[in-house]
Amino acid sequence: MYGLPFSYEAISSMNYLEQCLKETMRKYPPVQALARVCTKQFRVPGTDLDLDVGTAVLIPVYAIHHDPQYYPEPDTFNPDRFAKDGDGGGGDNGRPSGVFLPFGDGPRICIGMRFAMLEMKLALAQFLHRYLVTLSDKSCTRIEFEPASFLSCPKGGIWLNVNKRKA
Ligand code: HEM
């Protein structure tokens, strides 16, 4: 099942790889905010803030992904946050909807989401199957984002040592 090239079934069964990708996109969402326009008068719950029709709203994806209410110890990389729930649930582990937004949400959610997940898993699985990867001394230990970039890009890049695995 796990011979190269990996089959669709093999890739689909790689749950921990998927958890790692989701945790990476939680800590470093490629798109840090979503843009919306208010179409109905709305009072923000628990406040006296009214949003009028036509108001531009930015959904702060990065901040939501780092809210300890939903992700305890948010700076810790912990793929188990996305482990399949014991009750057969989808891996939200009791979190409400709308707090994991790397692909957005609602009617305008990323149309390429499933393709992107599959493609990332396939690329990583094939790459890690052939190469051993370790962090280079040139890499910084705490990632800072490039301020001039629309997408989350690490300042100075990420340096890795890549060695071909022995057959
Ligand atoms: C890791 C990869 C990707 C990420 C993180 C990503 C993220 C996003 C996000 C955040 C949005 C906005 C959703 C919203 O406003 O609720 C979006 C929209 C969109 N994405 Fe992606 N995307 C990815 C890959 C792809 C791929 C592979 C395709 C096409 C094959 C694609 C096509 C689109 C399109 C067409 C929209 C606009 C959808 C609409 O407005 O109805 N994306 N994506």
TrEMBL record:
Q: Which domain of life is it from?
A: Eukaryota
Membrane topology note: Peripheral membrane protein
PROSITE patterns hit by this protein? CYTOCHROME_P450
A molecular function annotated in GO for this UniProt entry is:
iron ion binding
**Pfam families according to UniProt:** p450
Gene Ontology cellular-component terms listed: endoplasmic reticulum membrane
Q: What are the binding positions for heme in this chain?
A: C110
What InterPro entries has UniProt attached to this entry?
A: Cyt_P450, Cyt_P450_CS, Cyt_P450_E_grp-IV, Cyt_P450_sf, Insect_CytP450_Detox
**Keywords in alphabetical order:** Endoplasmic reticulum, Heme, Iron, Membrane, Metal-binding, Microsome, Monooxygenase, Oxidoreductase
Question: Where is this protein chiefly located?
Answer: endoplasmic reticulum
Identify its protein family.
Belongs to the cytochrome P450 family.
Q: What is this protein called?
A: ACYPI003740 protein
